[in-house]
Amino acid sequence: MTTAAVVVLRSKRPEMPRPYRTFGYPVIPVVFVLSALGLVISTLFNSPRESLMGLVLVLIGLPFYYYWAKRRM
Fold first, then answer.
1. Based on CB atoms within 10 Å of each CB, which residue in 15, 25, 46, 71 is the most buried?
2. Is there a contact between 51 and 43 (Cβ–Cβ < 8 Å)?
3. Quick one: residue 66, left, alpha or beta (phi over 0 = left, psi -120 to 50 = alpha)?
4. 8-65 pLDDT per residue, tens
5. Nearest CA-CA partner of 3 in 23, 40, 39
6. Rounded to an integer, what is the distance from CA 19 to the centroid of its chain?
7. H or E stretch including 72?
8. How many other CB atoms are there within 10 angstroms of residue 47's CB atom?
């Protein structure tokens, strides 16, 4: 997700200063994101029970995130 965020940020905010350079941008980050997405999809097909349990665990945490994010404002 961090690598995808770099691609999105550089396209949405091209005027921002870049404190570091990304090697091979945009090809290597995009290839990395696609490879990671392929691994996630492969895991969902090969181990659906374990993958879904992980996704449910993340989804259970979302209400807590929104609660604390709202409380911080």
1. 25
2. yes
3. alpha
4. 999 999 999 988 888 899 999 999 999 999 998 999 999 999 999 999 999 999 999 9
5. 23
6. 21
7. helix 48-72
8. 12
Residue type, 40: V
DSSP 17-48: --SSPPTTTTHHHHHHHHHHHHHHHHHHHHSH
Q: Are 21 and 29 in contact (CB under 8 A)?
A: no
Structure tokens at 6: 């770099």
- Residue pair 10/25 in contact (Cβ under 8 Å)? The answer is yes
Q: Is the pLDDT of residue 73 over 80?
A: no
